[in-house]
Design goal:
There is one protein chain. It contains 14 helices and 43 strands. It is an alpha+beta fold. Strands 1, 2, 3, 4, 5, 6, 7, 8, 13, 14, 17, 20 and 21 form a 13-stranded antiparallel β-sheet that branches. Strands 9, 10, 11, 12, 15, 16, 18, 19, 22 and 23 form a 10-stranded antiparallel β-sheet that branches. The termini are far apart. 53% of the residues are buried. It binds zinc ion. Zinc ion (ZN) binds next to loops.
């Protein structure tokens, strides 16, 4: 029995006291407790066999009836049942202990020996919840438990989700919003949500400083919102598995919108998150913080590489000839006259997505081209995948292969089989390639990735390496008992990959830049930068940069592939990336052959260079609100504002910069609303500007003198 379970069992002779009394409780009935503060209220209702949130209010948002938690249990015979807080419990206790609200749910029908403890600590602005699950049942294993998240309603229900850079879904209550997130991964970068109405709202965050894996199932429709925040059980499959849900759940009333909710999560991150590196990143060489633009391109396929090229990059290199990938890049660097990074694909002899992790040897074309790129002053970063092993590499005769070795590190699904992702690339056998994510608990994998990195650095004077997938792939609640972690939930996935990278980074050559895919926050201290290529959704807001700017670089947005010919999309994402403080681009070098695009690109790259210190050392401010006669454009699946704007404050607070980009080919009269009190400088509250087509303007305001 765990210590936690033992202490609970010892106190099972618990007084059944209906909560109430004390300062925050203004109304007491036998079956309900009302917690009330000036800014919020919450009623909990207890019945004979359960308890629920009954109603409440946080700012403009109503809390409506809903469960406090749910619990999934598995008989060792494998039948899974789901219990909710609302019914089916043998005993429920609800009491006040000093400032705290305590609930204990005991002995559900047919599952004696299962207990859930929920504790809430109220304060002026909200309430902080913690949950423990105690399993003393000999026949059952807990599979999952949920954090206390309320069901809500509001006449206007706006929603913030921690999706990519963050997304503000306006009037989600009317328009509807559904999403399922695995945290921490390429989409769910952070662990907080918010609802707000006209003026105020409810912040909902899981303040878990260790970034344990979790899932969030979001359903907002017909004026109501529900988020199921689930914690995969630790030591799942074992009887009597007891655990605390990692971190606390914070409910907090706030004034404002997503930006104000973000400030609450930022405070948690800066004070408690274990993944936060030192601001300013002294360990990242200075020249890489200055990169203004990224190329992403690939060397044309060799015979050995078959047709298995990276589909998303296809059609460019072949179109322009074999030296395109070098010549166009050198020309582009010359035209931009700015620091340029280059992510190179197909530098290895193996085909893309096939025969991983056997990346070496490098192709001679790469080594020859690399020296020309370096002579031109371009920083070069080869691609490797640092998570996946190709499952059929034994076909090609590799002595150390997945069937013999990799299988022992494969992350295992609930059925005990390796997780497997099928990709479109075709192997010599005619079959599609299958990649298995490897659990970082597998020591040999960590060695292999290090050997690959050291091997590349030995044969090629690269400026760093792109480690694909690490900060993107959803952690697998791995069922193996041979990887040095307990099966199921935990923080071992991000902890393991962070440790792997810290070891590899410790021995890297001087003047190297390491980065990974997407921007799961849990890896913040493990990389110099993150490839934010999928920050191309609609409704994005710069929540992630508002928290993390200065702690690492965010680089690139993907505007090639299916959106390659959409000029508005190209300009919109460059403009938005500029205002988010990202390093720009991550696009094919052939942009240099398009004069119209180059004219605009040069303007945003120059602005990025001018503002580099703001992005590296300063703070992102509440974005200005722009109105004009121009209509938004809807294409390639998103709605794009014609005028994009952002604001940043310098590190010492003496200067604020406002960026305004007209991505339209039309002139426009714009009214730009600024926030002088928050910006801390003498700027107007509203600006009227006539903007030329495709104009990029940068306005600087000082704390005592305006421009
Ligand atoms: Zn594992």
């Amino acid at each position: 029995m765990t210590k936690l379970a033992k202490s609970f069992v010892e106190t099972l002779a618990f007084l059944s006291i209906v909560l109430c009394g004390a300062a925050t409780c203004v109304e007491a009935a036998e079956e309900t407790c009302v917690l009330q503060q000036e800014r919020w209220s919450l009623t909990i209702q207890k019945t004979n066999d359960g308890a629920r949130f009954l109603k409440g209010r946080f700012g403009d948002i109503d809390v409506i009836e809903g469960d406090i938690f749910s619990l999934a249990l598995c008989r060792l015979s494998n039948k899974t049942v789901v219990l909710s807080s609302g019914s089916g419990w043998g005993e429920v206790e609800l009491e006040r202990d000093g400032d705290r609200v305590k609930m204990r749910f005991s002995n559900p029908l047919n599952y004696g020996g299962i207990f859930v403890e929920v504790e809430g600590v109220p304060d002026e602005t909200g309430i902080t919840w913690s949950v423990a699950v105690i399993n003393c049942n000999l026949d059952s294993s807990v599979v999952e438990a949920t954090y206390p998240f309320p069901a809500v309603a509001g006449s206007t229900l706006n929603l913030f989700v921690p999706d990519r850079s963050g997304r503000a879904i306006l009037d989600a209550g009317k328009n509807g919003y559904r999403a399922f997130y695995s945290y921490p991964d390429h989409v769910a970068s952070m662990q907080y949500f918010a609802y707000w109405g006209e003026k105020s709202g409810l912040y909902l965050g899981v303040h878990d400083p260790d970034a344990y894996m979790k899932t969030f199932d979001v359903a907002v429709e017909r004026g109501e919102g529900r988020i199921r925040a689930a914690f995969p059980a630790i030591d799942v499959g074992a009887r009597k598995n007891s655990f605390r849900l990692a971190g606390e759940t914070r409910w907090q009333a706030f004034d404002g919108d997503w930006y104000d909710a973000t400030a609450i999560y930022k405070e948690f991150v800066l004070n408690r998150a274990k993944w936060l590196p030192v601001k300013g990143r002294p360990d990242t060489p200075a020249q890489f913080k200055e990169i203004a633009f990224w190329i992403c391109d690939y060397i044309p396929n060799s015979e050995k590489q078959l047709d298995a090229r990276p589909m998303t990059l296809a059609t460019v290199s072949e179109k322009f000839g074999k030296d395109y990938w070098v010549d166009a890049a050198v020309e582009l660097k010359k035209r931009l006259d700015a620091p340029v990074g280059y992510q190179v694909y197909n530098w290895h002899e193996i085909p893309f997505n096939i025969n991983y992790p056997h990346f070496l040897p490098a192709r001679q074309e790469f080594l020859d081209g690399l020296s020309k790129l370096k002579d031109a002053g371009i920083y070069v970063f080869p691609y490797i995948n640092a998570v996946s092993w190709e499952m059929d590499d034994a076909d090609e005769g590799y002595a150390e292969n997945f069937a013999d070795v990799g299988i022992h590190g494969a992350a295992l699904n609930a059925d005990g089989e390796p997780r497997c992702y099928v990709y479109p690339q075709i192997k010599a056998s005619g079959e599609k390639t299958r990649l298995a994510p490897i659990c970082p608990g597998f020591t040999r994998w960590r060695e292999i990735v290090e050997e690959v990195a050291r091997g590349i650095e030995k044969v090629a004077p690269v400026d760093g390496i792109y480690f694909d997938q690490i900060s993107a792939v959803a952690p697998v609640p791995c069922r193996s008992r041979e990887h040095g972690h307990l099966p199921g939930g935990g923080s071992y996935w991000s902890d393991g990959y962070r440790q792997m990278m810290k070891k590899i980074t410790a021995d890297r050559p001087e003047n190297s830049f390491y980065y990974s895919e997407s921007n799961a926050e849990a890896y913040a201290d493990a990389f110099d930068g993150f490839l934010t290529w999928i920050w191309t959704k609609g409704d994005l807001v710069p929540a992630f940069p508002a928290i993390y700017s200065g702690y690492f670089q965010t680089l690139g947005r993907y505007t090639d592939g299916a959106t390659r010919d959409n000029d508005v999309y190209f300009r919109y994402h460059l403009a938005e990336a500029l205002t988010y403080g990202q390093q720009l681009g991550w696009i094919n070098a052939c942009v240099v052959y398009n004069d119209a695009r180059m004219t605009f690109l040069k303007k945003v790259v120059d602005a990025r260079r001018e503002l580099t210190n703001f992005f590296n050392e300063g703070t992102l401010l509440r974005p200005p609100v722009v109105e004009s006669e121009l209509e938004p454009t809807t294409s390639s699946g998103i709605t794009m504002r014609p005028i994009v704007s952002g604001a940043w404050k310098s590190a010492d607070g003496s200067e604020t910069v406002v960026i305004v980009v007209n991505i339209s080919e039309k002139e426009a009269d714009a009214t730009i609303r600024l926030f002088p009190e928050e910006y801390g400088v003498e700027c107007p509250a509203s600006l009227e500007r006539r903007l030329a087509p495709l104009e990029v303007i940068v306005l600087k305001y000082h704390s005592h003198l305006s421009e």
